[in-house]
Amino acid sequence: MSQANLKDRFEVKQLLKKPGEGEETATHLRIKARSRDMGGDFSVMEGVINPKELLAPHTHKFEDQMVYVITSELVFQLGGADGLTFTAPAGSYVQKPRGIMHAFWNITDTPAHYIELSGRDGFEGFVDSQQQGTLKGTRNAERDWGMIWNLEELVRLMKENKLTSLAAMDTEHLASLPNIPGPVAKLLGVRG
């Protein structure tokens, strides 16, 4: 691209995202840059994990991810109970390789703001699918986006870490997901 046609191709609002700006989603994430805007290589999103909140354990088949912790701190678990668990304070970068189950949570008393960088557009597609509601977007997540939910880990993580809520999950519809483990449903109050 020549420097001469830059002004013909872009406006400042396409290139500059100020604090609080970006594309709202039906999740806890705000899209700052879509993969199509980044040559198809990666997307950039900003999120918040509130105190005592868990981002449910899941695995991505097709994309690597990296989190940059902006404020507070987050606890990460990669590879399940027998994997790695560590705390990432503000200013940390955490790589989440494809094919490895991961979850993260906030055990502090302050919201943890973070940036999510995801390779390709699979995770971005999943985030977009949440506009249809958690049930529709999550039910076919593996088929449509290569995203596998590891819901059997929810109870353990929530109990061990004294967590009280799930980030970006509409729990009233979780009971309709196929193969939801009974203890998860009971913990979330989605079945009688």
Describe this structure in words.
With 192 residues, this protein is α+β, with helices and mostly antiparallel strands. The protein has one domain: Jelly Rolls (Sandwich). It has 7 helices and 12 strands. The strands form 2 sheets. It has a 6-stranded antiparallel sheet with strand order 1-2-3-10-5-8. Strands 4, 6, 7, 9, 11 and 12 form a 6-stranded mixed sheet that branches. The longest helix is centred in the middle third of the chain and has 8 residues, at 122-129. The chain is globular.
Give the helix/strand layout:
Blueprint: H1 6-9, H2 12-15, E1 23-24, E2 29-33, E3 42-49, E4 53-60, E5 65-69, E6 73-78, E7 84-89, E8 93-96, E9 102-105, E10 112-119, H3 122-129, H4 134-139, H5 141-145, E11 147-149, H6 154-160, E12 165-166, H7 182-188
